Amino acid sequence: MFKEYDVIVVGAGHAGCEAAAAAANLGSKVLLVTMNMQTIAQMSCNPAMGGIAKGQIVREIDAIGGYSGIVSDLSMIQFKMLNRSKGPAMWSPRSQNDRMVFSLKWREMLEKTPNVDFYQDMVKGLLVKNGICYGVETGFGNKIKAKAVVLTNGTFLNGIIHIGEKNFGGGRMAEKSSSGITEQLVSLGFVSDRLKTGTPPRIDGRSLDYSKMEEQHGDKEIVGFSFLNTEKPKKQKCCWITYTNQNVHDILKTGFEKSPMFSGRIDGVGPRYCPSIEDKINRFAQRERHQLFVEPEGWNTVEIYVNGFSTSLPEDVQQKALQLIPGFENAKMFRPGYAIEYDYFPPTQLKYSLETQLIDNLLFAGQINGTTGYEEAACQGLIAGINAHQKVKNLEPVILKRSEAYIGVLIDDLITKGTDEPYRMFTSRAEFRTLLRQDNADLRLTEWSYKLGLASEERMQNVEKKKTEVDEIKTYLEETNLSPEIINPFLESKSTAAINEKQRAERILLRPNVELVDLVEEVPDIKERMKNYSNESIEQAAIQIKYDTYINKEKELVEKMSELENLMIPEKFDYKKIKAFGNEAREKLMRMLPRTLGQASRISGITPSDIQILMVYMKR
Fold this sequence. Notes:
CATH superfamily of the largest domain: FAD/NAD(P)-binding domain
Structural class: alpha+beta
Number of helices: 22
Helix content: 25-40%
Distance between the termini: 55 Å
CATH topology of the largest domain: FAD/NAD(P)-binding domain
């Protein structure tokens, strides 16, 4: 019945979809196996993409040739560029999305992707022989062979859903959990553990009084995520903000003894930076209120997502507490919030390609590696899909450096440090975040991806055009002198000092309260010269000029760090022969198998002296 595939991807969440698309677009024959064809790329939790650091990841996925950015643009109902008041390194795109359209667009794009086949069934086990994975076995008893398998099981591995004192098996509400894979992997020598996550109740928007809430509009200019010319919405939907209060907290506390978290029925650790509402009022008892974001689920639905009210308390407690929130006095629940605990495999058991150390041709991506968030899952899926293809074609694995992408930071963090709580990306995790901005993801990654064979010709042409325009704009600003009579009216309008003699446009732009977009809009000479350039190129040129000193300092730091990063450790290096190592260093290096001295230096417990010893032995 089944032919042999190059790559089988297990699970069709955000990681699985990106993995299937990447491997297929590179030329591999791919089978995407999912338990439910109707929930491909489902937004299981909040109906949004991007945000702080997460938006940078979506832009990187898009620059490489993944689909998440395109789908986000085509399904968005509101867009915001967060942190505009801060420096460009902190700017982070975020969209509210139509949950149903998002899933539909993902499925449409996958169905239009040559080389992708679909099969609806549960995968209950892997086909493994002599330490090599060569396929999967499904719940229907089908054994399907492949040269590589990518596991992207999300929260489905032995998932248990908790609502108050009730609990039942499930990967998410109304969908059964998956069993068999964890047990098999543990029998093969893998270590597994448990994590948990939660989701808020969904509310009937017709029952809310929005006049008691603060209205939140999207940006006038929709930048979006994709570097392609995707269609953006002509209008946007509003979101709202409201707050809990002491009465809400008092009601919630009455359910604590029935909370699975406080009663100890959930063993898994939850996400530190996305705590449940009961966790918030317990940990931050001094706070009188907590902010809630009231977010519509789509264009043609009244369903509302209450961001900030994640909970697993009993349903009646949830209902009573909700109705004490301003605007929610008559709130009707579509479904209660719940917590889910599930199996994951500490990612220190992986190679940097996301292939497992114990079993060849088996790769993990997404929440199975201990991460949380659509964006974190999607970028792992993209890299796992690329590397599954590379493996079956006997090509070198693709590994992004920390200085090249947030994706590189995320994977390096997971492999070298591991995680015992759901890992979420932040800008603070990236030491080179001035270089890793959302605006230059295409300049950083598209050419490399194009050479790999993934990014399209159209993307490469867009990058070349952007580079040319940016260079021309910078040259013009460096060489053009602006006279006082031309520029002073503008400077006065910005409350900055006028000039008495001609000054280079570039120097004017270095003033903190002067932006190139304003110069283009208000100074006729500059407006005329810039009329044929895109807003994106104008913004990019301005950033490169304004932050040139900081960018160059960071590049120098990258060069210094690359000395260690470029020192490759032989693949079968024998750490046992180095007697000068302590037991901890030897055990961790043997378990994590770093590819470079730079990666070895970031492993928890490895000291600078360990690195010096390793360098000496490598020279020998």
